Amino acid sequence: MVFDWYYVxxxxxxxxxxxxxxxxxxxxxxxxxxxxxxFISVGVGKLVTEVLKRIKFNQIFxxxxxxxxxxxxxxxxxxxxxIGGIVKWVMxxxxxxxxxxxxxxxxxxxxxxxxxxxxxxxxxxxxIFVVTVILVDIVEKIVRATVESIKVGYGAxxxxxxxxxxxxxxxxxxxxxxxxxxxFMETLFTGLVALLVIxxxxxxxxxxxxxxxxxxxxVKKKLKD
Length: 225
What we know:
By secondary structure, the protein is mainly α.
């Protein structure tokens, strides 16, 4: 009886040791792959950032509200660094996935695959944000210049309304792209549109009609002049 217990214990320890010895080469290989991948990812990210800076990519955003938007998001990085950072972390996840698959951690590998599958949504959302930064600045300036060119004193208000309208729809589009509470976002979007329509109707019903008529009359006079 004692001999059987001793034999089973020794056999279990031997099996554990053999499994550990067999796991060491896999662990070393996974570490090497990830470390090499990390340096490659960092290098490529820096290269992309430097190339974008050399082709004056940041200047596209200097006239816009990039710094202001990044400050609101508590992110201290320029446009080139932002793109370079995305490239870096995508490559890091790819190499980490390779290392995990070497180790045979199927569940963790599945999770990383899901992360990689989700990354295109993040990239598209980032592109929406970048385009919005550029679009808001251009549209705001065009609207203000157009309204002020006909000597109407509502340029700042009109441009502000258009600016925040674009940002609201952009934020909703980003959240939808990221898949954050899609049913809620769709309901919120429908509600915002309905609210704008109702507010517009109430404004006209409560006297806004006269104000709008005055504005249009003012614009008409300026155009004739």
